Amino acid sequence: MTAAHPHDTELADRARRVIPGGVNSGQRSIPGLADLVITAADGARFTDSTGREYVDYHAAFGPPLLGHNDPDVTAAVAAAGRTLDLCGVGVTPGEIDLAEQLCELVPSLEQVLLTSTGSEATFHALRVARAATGRRLVVKFQGCYHGWHDSVSLNVISAPDRVGRHDPISTGILPEVLDATLVLPFNDIEAVRAAFTEHGADIAAVIVEPVPHNVGCLLPDTGFLQALRDETSRHGSVLVFDEVITGFRHALGGWQQLSGITPDLTTLGKAIANGYPVGALGGRADLMQLFSTTPGAPAFFAGTYNGHPAVVAAALATLRKLRTEPVHEHVFALGDRIRAGLTDVFAELNLPAVVTGYGSVFVSYLMSGPVPRTYADLLRNDVGMFIGYRRRLAEHGVFELPLNLKRSHVSYAHTADDADRLVEATRTAVRDTLAAGGIDQLAGTSTMGGADAHR
């Protein structure tokens, strides 16, 4: 303990007295980390209030693709602060520049609007889809997360007995709102066709993470995204790609660039501004012009902080670096190195595991069998081992989020030595967890399902 930084418990207790649960997001309330207070972050690392440093592979669920406190991004934000402030009227040159670049890079974007979060972007995507079609229903997929708003706050990380029926992640949602959402299995083309056969005339939109990273990494089967494109086009529905995670982290044009499938609307977020709070919604001009930013248009759109000069500057600096430096080459190479190393570790320890991911995203499912395709496959994951070894990683100064099915991320600031340190720490942490028999105390470790919507 130092004078500047009291022990975690003291600071955490202060937080719990004035902040419900001591944290400002339910996804930060992690069993085993109740007293974690972070005091510094730089590059690939963060430091807690005891002075302990961690190599960070959680990376705030993915935004800092360049690493924490990237000097070019922070310099751009500081420069913007010397000339601009939030005025809440008109538009700034930076907003214009950012919109032009987003439309240039992402295939589906003809026009784009900025938001403060990815949740706002997906909310507005579904609102405008309903405005455009006059229809009621939306389709989402088990295991996909599209934010906190009511119509999509269901069926993310569900217990086995709740798969196949509505599984809201929160109470307080009206049952009739949930009734307007159809939940289908990811990668199941026949289920999609059946839903459109029965409900096609009333489906306003299909929203999908093209790669469901909120449950680790489920890669789409060949033909699945094309089937979504075909069915929505055939029935006059709006196809929404939620690329809040895949956008920019996997490619400058997102997964739609990699897959060749162009949706009607795209939502973006986490990697746009390297950790600064910004989201975006863009797509076909005829849909985007339904928003009230066009005078007289019917779909209301507003947000005092939309296009804030600081976050716009951060986004422009981030995109500049992504376009001019070998960011993707670096993080993809480290991702491959980590996946190969972890595969060897689990084989050496004779522990069934599937190490998967894409590019800079990786996850080790503790189960046997082929690479999972659907959420049902993920029910085989050994949750005790998954969470148990991640908790022990922190003892070695390496941090992966100890929550079931959560993915990990590589940044431009990580090095080959960091990757090798993760692999070696995993070997030790898994060996120790096996010796201890995993963990039994899993209450509260899944925080994205199981709420009673009718309470």
Summarize the structure.
By secondary structure, this protein is of the alpha/beta class.
Describe this structure in words.
The chain has 455 residues and is an alpha/beta fold. It has 2 domains: 8-69 and 326-436, Aspartate Aminotransferase, domain 1; 71-324, 3-Layer(aba) Sandwich (Aspartate Aminotransferase, domain 2), CATH 3.40.640.10. It is built from 14 helices and 14 strands. The protein has helices at residues 8-18, 71-83, 93-105, 118-133, 175-178, 189-199, 224-235, 254-259, 285-288, 309-324, 327-348, 375-378, 383-393, 416-436, and strands at residues 38-42, 45-48, 53-56, 111-115, 137-141, 181-184, 203-208, 238-242, 265-268, 279-283, 354-358, 361-365, 398-399, 408-409. The strands form 3 sheets. A 7-stranded mixed sheet has the order 4-10-9-8-7-5-6, with helices on both faces. A 4-stranded mixed sheet has the order 1-2-3-13. Strands 11-12-14 form a 3-stranded antiparallel sheet, covered by helices on one side. β11 (354-358) and β12 (361-365) form a beta hairpin.
